[in-house]
TrEMBL record, chain A:
It is a multi-pass membrane protein. The chain crosses the membrane at residues 144-162, 169-189, 195-212, 224-249. One of its GO terms (molecular function) is transmembrane transporter activity. Residues 11-251 form the Threonine/serine exporter-like N-terminal domain. PANTHER family: SUCCINATE TRANSPORTER SUBUNIT YJJP-RELATED, UPF0442 PROTEIN YJJB-RELATED. It comes from Alkalibacterium thalassium. InterPro entries: ThrE-like_N (IPR010619), ThrE_Dicarb/AminoAcid_Exp (IPR050539). Keywords: Cell membrane, Membrane, Transmembrane, Transmembrane helix. This is Uncharacterized membrane protein YjjP, DUF1212 family. The keyword rRNA processing does not apply. GO terms for cellular component: plasma membrane. GO terms for biological process: succinate transport.
TrEMBL record, chain B:
The keyword Acetylation does not apply. InterPro entries: ThrE_2, ThrE_Dicarb/AminoAcid_Exp. The chain crosses the membrane at residues 6-23, 30-47, 53-74, 81-101, 121-142. It comes from Alkalibacterium thalassium. Its main location: membrane. Pfam families: ThrE_2 (PF12821). Residues 9-133 form the Threonine/Serine exporter ThrE domain. This is Uncharacterized membrane protein YjjB, DUF3815 family. It comes from the Bacteria. Belongs to the ThrE exporter (TC 2.A.79) family.
Length: 252, 155
């Protein structure tokens, strides 16, 4: 016997899916979690379809009526803590089904959780990461400081332009152009050894490593549509970085 | 210039840590994921540059190890695997060959560009293969997952 209206349960599911997708979970994880949540409320004939930009969920209640909800996603960022929190919530629900309004409250709490680190801390961490990449790519100690500066400033510029324009392609292009220019300036003024190593190290903060990895995992889990969509995004990002760097390299 | 393994280890640790902060990994697992990334990179370095095996082999084994550590941590901290795997995989991502490819294209040497493109694809494939093989093995060999299999949603 179902205690809660199906429409409320669907709202909860879609909200959970929205939080997960917005914060960079793989699509197969979102499908799995939504399926579990719906299952814990004793719904039958559950069908979930998730692509990176949309989410469709169809269930059947006990009266034999089908219910469908569709969600269109626009902005995506990466916040793995929120993904992990929704995962915990779905585990709790699997043990004991809570009332949908309580779950909704918990999801709102998760959505309003602030980031663990401030913008300054984040950019500083990225700068340190970029500063250590030259060693991994076969550079010398002299390349570390230029990559630190170029990578940190480049990432700040990327975030600012991305907030302004909401076109990540443009933001990546401008940021990588700026990084290339800085690296070229540094090496021509005798600060740093190898311009290539410095550019590779500093550009790593923009490289779509996560998108590539996620898309391959989706493809291998059999989610061809989602995998190809994320791969296309990764190629677009790589192309943007390439164009930005290319504009600088033509000065060489 | 010769750098010892400890320097590489620390560099990979710092790189993974920075990306963990960017992706807002939960604070108590930051060091765990950095450690996984650093171990993966050291293994890649030893296999591919010191023993001079193929890049594909080195990256594949390293990605497998990162995924193995991530699975282990995921059980220990009760968090999804991606919290550890995504920052941990970052040092292995073929940024260098992708850049070289782009540069070769611009300079007009298409043959070099194709060579680097192949390298980029092989390395990306190796990373994905390492991750997938590991999660496949975990599903087969973990008895808990085996019992629960028919309840899982695997379309």
């Amino acid at each position: 016997m179902q205690k809660y209206p199906v429409a409320d349960i669907l709202d909860v599911c879609v909200e959970a899916g929205r939080v997960m997708l917005e914060n960079g979970a793989e699509t197969y994880r979102v499908e799995d979690t939504l399926y579990r949540i719906a299952k814990s409320y004793n719904l039958v004939y559950i069908n979930v379809f998730v692509v990176p930009t949309a989410l469709i969920l169809t269930v059947q209640g006990e009266d034999g009526q089908d219910h469908t909800e569709l969600l269109r996603m626009t902005d995506r960022q990466t916040n793995l803590e929120k993904v992990s929190m929704v995962n915990d919530l779905s585990r709790q629900l699997a043990q004991r089904a809570l009332a949908p309004d309580k779950v909704k409250l918990k999801l709102t709490n998760i959505k309003n959780t602030p980031r663990n680190f401030s913008t300054l801390q984040r950019n500083l961490a990225i700068a340190f990461a970029c500063g250590s990449f030259p060693l991994l790519f076969g550079g010398t100690y002299d390349d570390m400081l230029p990559a630190f500066i170029a990578g940190g400033l480049g990432h700040i510029l990327f975030e600012v332009i991305n907030d302004w324009t909401n076109v990540s392609f443009f933001a990546e292009m401008v940021a990588s152009f700026f990084i290339g220019l800085l690296a070229l300036l540094f090496t021509t003024s005798g600060f740093g050894d190898d311009v290539n190593i410095i550019i590779i190290g500093s550009v790593m903060s923009l490289v779509p490593g996560m998108a590539i990895t996620n898309s391959f995992r989706d493809l291998m889990a059999g989610h061809l549509l989602a995998g190809v969509a994320v791969l296309a995004k990764a190629f677009l990002t790589a192309g943007a970085i390439g164009i930005g760097i290319a504009m600088v390299l033509t000065f060489l | 210039m010769n750098l010892n393994h400890l320097t590489y280890f620390i560099a990979a640790l710092v790189a993974t840590f920075g990306f963990g902060v960017l992706y807002n990994v939960p604070t108590r697992t930051l060091f765990a994921s950095s450690f996984a990334g650093a171990i993966g990179w050291i293994v890649y370095y030893i296999l591919s540059f010191q023993l001079e095996l193929d890049l594909f082999v080195g990256v594949g084994v390293a990605a497998f190890l990162v995924a193995y550590f991530s699975q282990w941590y995921a059980r220990h901290f009760k968090m999804p695997v991606i919290v550890f795997a995504i920052p941990g995989i970052i040092p292995l991502v073929p940024g260098g060959s992708a850049y070289n490819m782009m540069r070769a294209f611009i300079e007009g040497s298409s043959e070099m560009a194709l060579m680097y493109a192949t390298e980029t694809f092989l390395i990306s494939g190796a990373i994905a293969l390492g991750l997938s093989v590991n999660s496949g093995l975990f599903q087969v060999f973990s008895s808990q997952a085996f019992e629960k299999r028919d309840k899982r949603y695997l379309p």
